[in-house]
Amino acid sequence: MNAETAMKTEGYTTADGRKIGGVLMEMKNITLRFGGVTAIKDISFDIRDGEIRAIIGPNGAGKSSMLNVISGFYVPTEGEVWFKGFRRGPMKPYQVAQLGIARTFQNIALFDGMTVLDNIMTGRLTLMKTGILAQAMWWGSAQREESAHREKVEKIIDFLEIQAIRKTPVGRLPYGLKKRVELARALAAEPKILLLDEPMAGMNVEEKEDMCRFILDVNDEFGTTICLIEHDMGVVMDLSDRVVVMDYGKKIGDGTPDEVRANPEVIAAYLGVAHD
Amino acid sequence: MLPDQILFALEVTLNGLMAGVMYALVALGFVLIFKASGIFNYAQGVLALFAALTLVGFQNGQIPFAHLINATFGTNLHTFGWTLPGIVAIALTAGVMVLLAWLIERLVLKHLVNQPPIILFMATIGLAYFLEGLGDVMWGADIKTLDVGLPQGISETVESATAALLGYGFFIDNLDIVATIVAVILVATLTIFSQYSKQGRALRAVADDHQAALSVGISLRFIWVLVWSIAGFVALVAGIMWGTKSGVQFSLSLIALKALPVLMLGGFTSIPGAIVGGLIIGVGEKLFEFTIGPMIGGATENWFAYVLALLFLVFRPQGLFGEKIIERV
Question: Which candidate in A68, A73, A106, A112 is best for mutational testing of the B interface (most B CBs within 10 A)?
Fold first, then answer.
């Protein structure tokens, strides 16, 4: 029943007039336990095609755990993950990546020894068709494929304005640029959903503004659905179409930024409540 | 005409280069696994021994575990009674090495994902002893001769050509010439593979960061089986060369020790480094023995490589071609 109804769900139009499609990904009653610790308690929410969806919450709320569930790094103890109208079985992270779900990490996971270009090229590995034997035997076609992928990567490099550091080993780059390269690598996979784990953590105001602009541009130009985790409330409210709020592993709010801002539970979680 | 002393030095150098190629062949196996998984594979030498033993076993139609079977069931089995041509035996052995790589991933590496390198290193020590024992039980502990049809002995062509040209015949072993050609082909193929192919890039990615590799859709397990298969194949090549040169015996696993100084010179992460390191050590120890050796009582070949490696560790720890790890603080 769900496979059909989920895809049929009507989209909505955002405040700035963008048309958002039906449900692309749905988390149903997700619970995640590590031994006796419950990181996520019975959370359900969906991600619509083309929207920017944010997950916010105080430290330790379980936001990163939720992102890890979506990207397959954690397997939920209970609950179901639905993607494109189909239930996703337990999968390895690399299989999830092959489905078209790309991600970045809170504390940056790049290949430090490789150049920026090579790092971004790894993002396209799942899209490369030629197998190992074919590469050895038909050298020509493998090279044609390589240059086609290279072209796409160059476009992303231009898009994110990192032309100047193309050949630099990633290990030598400053923090802000590393974050951008990581975004580029995720984008190179041409993902259906892009998961960003605190894309602006540890950045200065200028870098944050740049990153915001890139995220909006990615969504706008490629139509990529984005799900992000962020601490900076101002940034989240400006950026996202809909927000899930988590606290102590539970969902305490879900809706547009304005709805969430007005939610008393959310205010309590962020500002504390008065005791009388 | 050049004076004899110089010509002799030239011959020594050439022989040193060829000996260096033999060292490099072993070092290459280490570099491959280190590059792709950050593991220093202690078992590489034993892998070469195991490959050589299996090759001889296949070629002579030996029954695996013959001693064990005979001791248990009181039978008297030894061979199947066939001899296989070299090329068939090599192909079969290559298959066994791939199977071994798959088993190593299945039984050892799979359970050690995200463990620190020292744990993986310890695992390879265990693997080395296990394989040495397995080789012994499977094929017996006697010294075997290996002949897959590679030319051996002093090359008469080289000798007569140099004699005609320089008036001094160079003594070069045919096997060394073959080893050099094979090494060149092997290195060229591996370099092209790791730099320009899809799997090569995935391989470098896995070496760098497991988590990031998973996030771009690389299967760690496939890459590990691939890497250990390649390392097994390189071990087979090294095993063939060394086995043909000095017989297949258990001291073959000790050639791994000679590969260590090679790696320290060339750097643990560089394929060309393994070759250049091997050549420098080969030439260095022959020339040192030839020039300084007589003054200090000879037998310098036993220690020269290690002293050279020690100097490198002090002054250039990353080796000639290794990556210098730069960490931003």
Answer: A112
Residue B86 domain boundaries: 4-315
- CA–CA separation, A173 and A179 (whole Å): 10
pLDDT per position as a tens digit, A119-149: 999 999 888 876 666 666 666 777 788 888 9
Does B192 fall in a domain?
Answer: yes
Q: DSSP per residue over B196-263, as a string?
A: HSHHHHHHHHHHH-HHHHHHTT--HHHHHHHHHHHHHHHHHHHHHHHHHHH-B-GGGGGHHHHHHHHH
Candidates A71, A114, A125; nearest CB to B218: A125
Q: How many domains does chain B have?
A: 1
pLDDT digits (tens, 9 = 90+) for A166-192: 899 998 899 989 999 999 999 999 999
Domain membership of residue B326 (yes or no) is no
Residue ranges and CATH numbers for the domains of chain A are 1-100+191-276 (3.40.50.300), 109-190 (3.40.50.300)
pLDDT above 70 for B130: yes
**Chain B residue numbers touching A94 (CB-CB < 8 A):** 213-214, 217-220
A80 touches chain B (CB under 8 A): no
Shortest distance between the Cα of B304 and any Cα of chain A, in A, equals 32
A99: closest chain B residue by CA: B217
- B98 within some domain: yes
Q: Report yes or no on B111 lying in a domain.
A: yes
Residue A110 makes CB contacts below 8 A (sequence gap 6+) with A119, A170, A178, A181, A182, A185, B209, B212
| Cross-chain Cβ contact B217/A135 below 8 Å | no
